[in-house]
Amino acid sequence: MAFDAGEVARALERLDEQEGDSVVTSVRVPQGLRRAASVLQEAGLLSSWNDLLVQGARDRLETIVHRAGLDAHYADHPELRPPVAEVALALARMDASELADQPEIVEQAAEELTAVRPDATADDVLTYATALLAHRSAA
Amino acid sequence: MSSTPPATVILDSGAVTALSDVHHPKHRALLPYLEGAAQRRARKPSQRILVPVAVRIEAGWDCTDPAAAVANRVSGARDVPLTGEAADKAARIAAATGVSVVDATVGEAAGAAPKPVVILSSDVEDMGKLAERLSGDIRLVRV
Hints:
A: 0% strand; B: alpha/beta; 52% helix
């Protein structure tokens, strides 16, 4: 479903305004969740129940917007969808992993893993590549 | 060498410029990083992608402009506002390193963000000066 990612982003940025508008809304919350939050608040580990809900909702909304935005981009430009091996290598670089310097192992891991698990994620590939690297080092 | 997923990913001006235009030579190269970040955020939504507001200005990224639709939807980024306190820190970083004002705000954002931080950048040299100045696990990734 199409949506304006900029409009969502602008709405979320208003959360940073000190005097931003707010609305009172009614949310049904499981008692266990409310109780757990109360315990953490009493222990000083949580500022407020309201902050927990707002920040949690914001993080989740941003995650959904990002996923939907990328999927829409790939739908418009299928040639731009990165193969899982490239995504895994990008993660290895961001993780400062030694696999960042072993692209051939990451490529091999992606090829072997997706042959049996076509829906493997980039982190799945990195886990497999780590095992391949350990096996190679031990041999 | 540590191997820990970043808690924060920050985009610099070069990265934003490349993201904004599907025909930019580095647009394709950036997408694996954002795709990887998006996959991880699905499991851990507290991982963040940030863009200092000065970066948006330099890159001409106006979220309300229809021309910004690509950056809006693929970046997944949250603004880092430039407060007075942040401006003071950025000014000190700029004075100490000689980097541009905008790059100094990237450094300030990196210093304040949950670590590890990854800065996706096309200018590793200037960003390297920043990383030397800042404490904590801040990684530069060239795109």
